[in-house]
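> example.struct
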């Protein structure tokens, strides 16, 4: 396929002219295939477009029978064209008919052609169609010719993605704008209908074809050098403050930034006539396509590194900021690769209708915050950010753990009806607001809220909760641009106590570290942050921070009762030391004439397994205990709750987990120490039913869970579920789960779980 004078650059210029012609989409596409065939000296050029029914349809051809246009269709994995679409890789053959995947279509008249070259039409890693050229001779296509056709394919992919060809597909639309449903895992219950807002918007490449190729090469080289310098600076900083693992990650990123194969492919794309940013996007799309087809997690992560580097280059070339949180439109659905709790709290929750994440499991902190805010969320959705564009209609199903992009009218209507049904169910739950949570056999269960923001306290009245079982003070720190002063903390806590209307509030001291990093504090690189310097460990090592918070709490209580809880206590000694700091602060305030709380009760969170072997001592020392089931399960089963590959490898209703919960409940009761479960399992009806059977009488949960849990409690016989659990635990093995047994128990007795 020898090039004509001007080569791919001339072709791109002619394509630009063809795209600007004031003609219909079919006429424009017909002209484009003629231009490509003439430029590359091929007898045939054809464009196949992926349809919504996952078939490939011939949309235009030069050289084959034109009557086959919009008639020839094939499965997305059928023939040579289907092979290219499914692998997202170019295919060059000197004798196409001898290839095992060759599929003969008599209506096209292609039997006269032997040499074949096809490339996928890719956008953001997604296959939108296939571009092919054919020759009668048995010839070998060069790498340069393949590169030229791939460059042309990018322009066609943008044409398809724009929706210009939508009306040409027979009896259905093109796959570029087709409705999609993607499966993930449910993070936060609920259903949200709205429009896509990308948390880190993709850089939009507006100019694809270069006016001055030499200038584009200079721009690309300058951007590469700038990105390299920035990464070098990161490596140097990492060498000073980071761990060996952190330095290794940074060195890997630097290695990719200097990878000659990656750089060569971008320079070749520029040399073929693309702008610098279009070249980066084209190579990035190729990498994404390979990433989506990799099963090896290591290789997938390395391709993610390349994806991130490409985004750095695109931002350097276009001047776009890396990320920016602006005002959200009404009915916004956030779509992101990953997001921390602080980033989520940057957004205005009142206009946020849902969240979709590529990463993040049900026990991640961002999921916890989403549940606290009542925002439906779905996580672990592969390639979510590339499946949709900003402004696309989208439905987030936080019940089934899936989301729908560009849903059809039938799907939208079905979900709108589901929203109405859920609203009616919420009305039924609201009718239970003032009904005491008492089981059928007369056992009272205290239902409390988990909260973290002042706005959450409105739910106390709405749900009829008996109080706040967990107030996460770190959220105030995470949304601030600087460390809140003692006066600012005191004012917040004063408003919290006032908003509680006299109901008890259990305040947890600052729980930062791990994945909860304050934006104004230097991040400490640790090999295992979940087991590192966090929570009470920071408070004891930096007592000034803890003392400031405790003093603000004691002053804000101003004669009211106060309950303070310390997180991640691993030894009784840590709790005793924390109590000592409280005593000194109380003495200081008393000396200076401040009114102290009417009572000050101090508790410990049971979330580190070492406390299970000190449970009698801690129950005697503390005024109350709270079970942090999320971290307790994470540490007990050595399962990182942020790691999607292992996060679901344990069941909190397994015999081993239930024995741990039972031990805490029994020893706390023996010591006369009240105990509450404030982890996520307390808000799931089936799990909460098991906790009641184990002897727990106080549960704290998200506001949305209060209604379903109360409905379960009102239908439950606590003695019957206790007897069932004891009998099953006695006969089952440690790794067995009681979930099937308890599900059958609930169904047989009409308990809604």
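> example.seq
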């Amino acid at each position: 396929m020898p090039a004509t004078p001007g080569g791919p650059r001339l072709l791109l210029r002619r394509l630009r002219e063809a795209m600007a012609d004031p003609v219909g989409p079919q006429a424009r596409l017909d002209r484009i295939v003629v231009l490509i065939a003439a430029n590359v000296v091929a007898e045939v050029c054809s464009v196949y477009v992926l349809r919504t029914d996952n078939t490939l349809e011939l949309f235009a051809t030069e050289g084959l029978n034109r009557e086959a246009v919009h008639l020839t269709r094939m499965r997305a994995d059928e023939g040579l064209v289907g092979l290219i679409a499914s692998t997202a890789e170019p295919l060059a053959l000197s004798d196409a008919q001898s290839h095992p995947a060759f599929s003969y279509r008599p209506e096209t008249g292609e039997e006269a052609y032997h040499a074949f070259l096809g490339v996928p039409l890719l956008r953001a890693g997604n296959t939108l169609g296939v571009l092919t050229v054919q020759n009668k001779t048995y010839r070998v296509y060069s790498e340069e010719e393949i590169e030229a056709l791939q460059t042309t394919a990018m322009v066609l992919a943008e044409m398809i993605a724009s929706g210009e060809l939508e009306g040409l597909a027979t009896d259905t639309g093109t796959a570029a704008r087709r409705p999609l449903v993607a499966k993930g895992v449910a993070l936060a219950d609920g259903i949200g209908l709205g429009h896509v807002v990308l948390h880190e918007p993709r850089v939009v490449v507006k100019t694809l074809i270069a006016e001055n190729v030499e200038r584009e090469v200079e721009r690309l080289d300058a951007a590469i050098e700038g990105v390299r310098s920035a990464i070098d600076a990161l490596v140097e900083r990492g060498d000073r403050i980071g761990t060996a693992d952190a330095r290794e990650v940074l060195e890997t990123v630097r290695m990719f930034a200097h990878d000659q194969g990656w750089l060569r492919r971008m320079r070749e794309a520029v040399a073929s006539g693309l702008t610098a940013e279009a070249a980066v996007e084209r190579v990035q799309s190729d990498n994404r396509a390979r990433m989506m087809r990799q099963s090896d997690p290591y290789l997938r992560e390395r391709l993610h590194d390349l994806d991130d580097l490409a985004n750095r280059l695109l931002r350097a070339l276009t001047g776009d900021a890396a990320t920016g949180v602006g005002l959200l439109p009404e009915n916004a659905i956030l779509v992101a690769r990953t997001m921390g709790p602080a980033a989520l709290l940057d957004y205005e929750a009142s206009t946020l209708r849902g969240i979709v994440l590529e990463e993040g499991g049900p026990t991640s902190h961002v999921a916890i915050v989403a549940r606290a805010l009542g925002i439906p969320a779905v996580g672990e959705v592969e390639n979510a950010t590339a499946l949709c564009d900003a402004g696309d209609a989208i439905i987030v199903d936080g019940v089934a753990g899936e989301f729908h992009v560009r849903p059809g009218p039938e799907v939208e209507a079905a979900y709108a009806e589901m929203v109405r049904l859920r609203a009616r169910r919420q009305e039924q739950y609201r009718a239970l607001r003032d009904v005491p949570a008492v089981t059928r056999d007369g056992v009272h269960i205290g239902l409390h809220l988990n909260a973290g923001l002042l706005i959450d306290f409105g739910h106390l009245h709405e749900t009829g909760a008996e109080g706040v079982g967990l107030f996460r003070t770190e959220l105030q720190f995470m949304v601030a641009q600087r460390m809140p002063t003692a006066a600012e903390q005191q004012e917040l806590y004063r408003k919290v106590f006032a908003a509680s209307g006299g109901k008890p509030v259990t305040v947890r001291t600052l729980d930062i570290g791990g994945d909860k990093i304050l934006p104004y504090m230097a991040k400490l690189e640790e090999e295992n942050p979940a087991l590192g310097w966090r929570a009470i460990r920071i408070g004891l090592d930096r007592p000034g921070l803890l003392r400031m918070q405790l003093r603000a709490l004691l002053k804000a209580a101003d004669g009211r009762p106060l309950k303070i809880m310390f997180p991640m206590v691993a030894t009784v000694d840590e709790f005793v030391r924390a109590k000592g700091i409280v005593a000194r602060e109380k003495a200081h305030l008393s000396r200076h004439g401040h009114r102290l709380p009417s009572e000050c009760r101090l508790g410990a969170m049971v979330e580190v397994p070492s406390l299970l072997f000190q449970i009698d001592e801690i129950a005697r020392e503390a005024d109350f205990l709270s079970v942090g089931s999320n971290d307790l399960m994470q540490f007990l089963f050595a399962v990182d709750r942020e790691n999607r590959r292992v996060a679901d490898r344990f069941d909190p209703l397994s015999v081993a987990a239930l024995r741990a919960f039972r031990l805490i409940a029994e020893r706390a009761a023996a010591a006369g120490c009240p105990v509450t479960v404030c982890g996520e399992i307390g808000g799931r009806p089936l799990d909460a039913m098991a906790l009641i059977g184990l002897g727990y009488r106080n549960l704290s949960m998200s506001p949305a869970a209060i209604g379903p849990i109360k409905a379960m409690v009102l239908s439950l016989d606590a003695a019957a579920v206790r007897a069932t659990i004891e009998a099953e635990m006695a006969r089952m093995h440690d790794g067995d789960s009681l979930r099937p047994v308890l599900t059958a128990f609930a169904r047989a007795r009409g308990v809604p779980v």
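> remarks
The longest strand covers residues 126-135.
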